[in-house]
From TrEMBL, chain A:
It is a multi-pass membrane protein. It comes from Streptomyces brasiliensis. One of its GO terms (cellular component) is plasma membrane. Pfam families: BPD_transp_1. This is Sugar ABC transporter permease. Gene3D superfamilies: MetI-like. Its main location: membrane. Keywords: Cell membrane, Membrane, Transmembrane, Transmembrane helix, Transport.
Automatic annotation (TrEMBL), chain B:
Keywords: Cell membrane, Membrane, Transmembrane, Transmembrane helix, Transport. It comes from the Bacteria. This is Sn-glycerol-3-phosphate transport system permease protein UgpE. It is a multi-pass membrane protein. Its main location: membrane. It is found in: Cell membrane. The keyword Mitochondrion does not apply. GO terms for cellular component: plasma membrane. Belongs to the binding-protein-dependent transport system permease family. Residues 83-272 form the ABC transmembrane type-1 domain. The chain crosses the membrane at residues 26-45, 82-107, 119-142, 148-168, 205-226, 251-272. GO terms for biological process: transmembrane transport.
């Protein structure tokens, strides 16, 4: 904030000293030319965000009150879609699975990434290579990730079961039972995303002034005390960011991976809400009904974001500077 | 055999430094975790050189190397076309996005106009709206605009996201203003200041973002799945996904296709690793 204010003051002085010279310019004053320039600079992105993000978002809510049939005929049905949603056991199953998925994935991903961040912050020989290795899965598309893990988790021929049998265990039908498949989906997501959040945690950790750690060392604090009294509180803005992003991503993302790895199965065991909504819309053409469920999901996401914001007091994230 | 290799590796590196200090422990941990992280990717790449008969034999290194899978993938399926589509679409999106976002970010960071903070707030709010959330209305809007089944339909909606605007604005707020102010005093218009001064100064962040955008769009799947039906417009990720359902147990072909799709991103990552990591770091910090 302060830098903007300072900048404005400075610009204001520049502008006032220039007033005599610019007053003989035709038509537009300096100030208005600046407004015009700003408008033109912003126009493409603002229009694009309006048409492809904001309007669809609003449209989605509007749509939820309509029955959309086949190609293009809309019929107002009030809260009909929402009533249907309340009584749709498949939807609530998918919400329950989403709940389990989020409640397991977000904390696990958080802890793994934070652990990795703390690990790769250490000055050890070859640390650059370890960072690279841990980040690598993130650059691969979820489609390829799905294909790759499907191959590795195959019940008969997959390398995971081979390793288990070699170690004296029975192989498991990883993608063949609902709860195991959900577990696999979570594990694979952690594998893909851990490097990304590791880097974010690393950046946050590197922001913490070294003096704090030196002081703690002088006081004879052990690693746990140091973590609890210095790292954890000072890392709060980063923790907020990671929690928020990973929760939002867990609720609305991962469609690609579900499509390829499990296709919602077995027995709808990995049919997360976002997948069920997709099926209703693009499988059965139920755009109105799917929009109602989508709006409900967004509502939950907003509430969760607010809760996370409250819990972490928002870190420094609030004013963007 | 994989866990074997890991254990062996961990053993030797632990054995080298005699007293089991915490440094050694951490190094062992880092090595083991790195191997676990990389192993699936290595497994995919080496398996794609195996024959149909040996692809599931459980060896990390193929006993007989074959390039036949790659030949098959390119000759039996229009994979070249898929790759070109993905490349073309990602490149156009990246260039257009960088251009528009840097313009918008420059205005938000430097130009003074009424309602600036409100505009920024509104743009920032769209960060939480992800493609899956607006997929249905986006599809209907695109259908209304006649954008389905066209390059334009794959490209235009993907250009606009607040993430790039946000990062660039942060970057511009941190740039020294003196040069721009001097240019304005000299009578330069805002466009010339942007084009001749601001844009050249933003090269580092633009290249970091370029890689990030290219990667994200190369890997995109859900929007192309919804927005296209036409074989000629199939992008690589869609190609892989449908190939995979057609050739269910021909893992040698499927893995070769997957390797082809992943390879450009792996190369990009190894070459521009620092830029990618830097752009992620800035996104988390501010």
């Amino acid at each position: 904030m302060s830098s903007v204010a300072a900048q404005e003051n400075r610009r204001a002085t520049v502008a006032t000293t220039r007033t005599p010279a610019s007053s003989d310019r035709p038509r537009l004053s300096r100030k208005h030319r600046e407004w015009l320039a700003a408008g033109l600079f912003l126009a493409p992105d603002v229009l694009g965000l309006l048409i492809f993000v904001a309007i669809p978002m609003v449209f989605s809510i509007v749509l939820s009150f309509f029955q959309v049939s086949g190609f293009g005929s809309y019929e107002w049905i009030g809260l009909g879609n929402y009533r249907r949603m309340m009584n749709d056991p498949l939807f609530w199953d998918s919400m329950k699975i989403t709940g389990e998925y989020v409640v397991i994935l977000v904390p696990v991903l958080f802890c793994v990434s934070l652990g990795l961040g703390l690990l790769v912050k250490q000055k050890l020989p070859g640390m650059g290579a370890y960072r690279t290795a841990l980040f690598l899965p993130y650059v691969i598309s979820l489609v390829v990730v799905g294909v790759l893990w499907k191959f590795m988790l195959d019940e008969q021929t997959g390398v995971v079961n081979r390793a288990m049998r070699a170690a004296g265990f029975d192989g498991k039908s990883w993608l063949g039972s609902p709860s195991l498949a959900l577990g696999c989906l979570i594990a694979v997501t952690v594998w893909v995303m851990m490097g990304y959040y590791m880097i974010i945690f690393l950046a946050g950790l590197q922001e913490i002034p070294k003096e704090f750690y030196e002081a703690a060392k002088l006081d004879g604090a052990g690693p746990w005390t140091t973590f609890r009294t210095i790292t954890w509180p000072l890392l709060r803005p980063t923790s907020f960011f990671v929690l928020l992003m990973s929760t939002v991503a867990a609720i609305t993302g991962g469609l690609d991976l579900i499509f390829v790895l499990t296709n919602g199965g077995p027995a709808n065991g990995t049919s997360l809400a976002i997948f069920y909504i997709y099926q209703q819309a693009f499988g059965f053409g139920e755009y109105g009904y799917a929009s109602a469920m989508g709006s409900f999901l967004v509502l939950i996401m907003v509430v969760l974001s607010a809760v996370i914001f409250k819990l972490t007091r928002g870190g420094r994230f609030d004013d963007g500077e | 055999m994989a866990s074997d290799a890991m254990a062996r590796r961990a053993h030797t590196s632990a054995g080298r430094r005699r007293p089991l200090s915490s440094r050694t422990g951490l190094t062992v941990l880092a090595v083991v975790l790195s191997l676990i992280s990389v192993f699936p990717v290595v497994w995919m790449v080496t398996s794609s050189f195996k024959t149909r008969a040996t692809v599931t034999d459980g060896n990390l290194i193929p006993r007989e190397f074959t390039f036949q899978n790659f030949v098959y993938v390119f000759t039996e399926v229009p994979f070249g076309r898929y790759l070109w589509n993905s490349f073309f679409i990602s490149a156009v999106i990246t260039v257009a996005a960088l251009f528009f976002h840097s313009m918008a970010a420059y205005a938000l960071a430097r130009l003074r106009f009424p309602g600036r903070e409100k505009v920024f707030g509104a743009i920032f709010a769209t960060l939480l709206v992800t493609i899956p959330v607006v997929l249905i209305p986006l599809f209907l809007v695109a259908r209304q605009l006649g954008l389905l089944d066209s390059y334009a339909g794959l490209i235009i909606p993907a250009i606009f996201n607040a993430f790039g605007i946000f990062l660039l604005r942060q970057f511009y707020l941190g740039l020294p203003k003196e040069l721009e102010e001097a240019a304005i005093v000299d009578g330069c218009g805002h466009w010339r200041v942007y084009w001749n001064i601001v844009l050249p100064m933003s090269r580092p962040i633009l290249s970091a973002l370029a890689i990030f955008f290219f990667l994200a769009n190369w890997n995109a799947f859900v929007w192309p799945l919804v927005a296209t039906n036409n074989q000629d417009l199939t992008v690589i990720q869609l190609g892989i996904a449908s190939f995979q359902t057609q050739y269910t147990s021909n893992w040698n072909y499927i893995l070769a296709a997957a390797t082809v799709a992943a390879l450009p991103m792996l190369v990009l990552f190894f070459v521009f690793q620092r830029q990618i990591v830097e752009s992620i770091k800035t996104s988390g910090l501010k």
